[in-house]
Specification:
alpha/beta
Length: 214
């Protein structure tokens, strides 16, 4: 059997209101680098022909695109499962409903920590409260919600509280992601790398949570 791709990750824009030190955005981007709706529709059709089943709509921050609902609709027309990967900034109840009506299946919402002050410090913006509001908007629109938290030296010791936050928000899934050390993350690696002891404690917390929530 010929191998085929089953998932496509799209970077709809490199614009973002946050300034996370582990950001995977390119450190320099060309002007006019964003594809328009018709170009994305072609990409989705070609991906489906290759056997792709689901598409992650990412960035940057995809919500800065005012045509996001049209992009989602294009993916749905290609019969792809759609997952919006977002900071949540700019996602209120009316927009969540519009995205749902366009065919959005799920939202993966990023958090920097469970604690507002620390989360905002990591994000470089007052964002934590707006993320909580976005989570509520997603749930109200009937969209599946998951959380993503990039784990590093600054937040790894709050892993238990972060997992509790995910439970409180009623998420179906939480992804504890490693920093990918290139671009901005490579430049900031000295401040991001956890100690071996921190990793050991966090592994115990994660394994206990997996057993409890299985």
């Amino acid at each position: 059997m010929t191998p085929r791709p089953y998932a496509l990750l799209t970077e709809l824009t490199y614009r973002c209101p946050l300034h996370c030190p582990y950001c995977s955005n390119p450190m320099a981007t060309a002007a006019g680098a964003e594809l328009n709706v018709s170009e994305w529709q072609r990409v989705f059709r070609e991906a489906a022909e290759l056997g792709v089943l689901q598409v992650g709509l990412s960035g940057g921050e995809p919500l800065v695109r005012r045509d996001l609902a049209e992009i989602v609709r294009g993916a749905r027309e290609a019969k792809l499962y759609t997952n919006l990967i977002t900071s949540g900034l700019g996602l209120d109840e009316p927009r969540a409903r519009a995205l749902r009506e366009a065919g959005l299946d799920s939202v993966q919402l990023s958090f920097q920590s469970d604690e507002a002050d620390l989360a905002d410090e990591i994000a470089g913006a007052r964002a934590h409260g707006r993320k909580l509001e976005a989570a509520a908007a997603v749930r109200a629109a009937g969209i599946s919600l998951s959380l993503n938290v990039v784990i590093h030296r600054r937040n790894i010791d709050r892993l238990q509280q972060i997992i509790t936050l995910a439970e409180t928000l009623g998420t179906g899934r939480i992804e504890l992601a490693n920093v990918q050390f290139y671009g901005w993350a490579f430049r900031n690696r000295a401040a991001l790398l956890p100690t071996r002891e921190q990793v050991g404690r966090a592994r115990e917390v994660a394994e206990m949570a997996k057993a409890r929530l299985a």
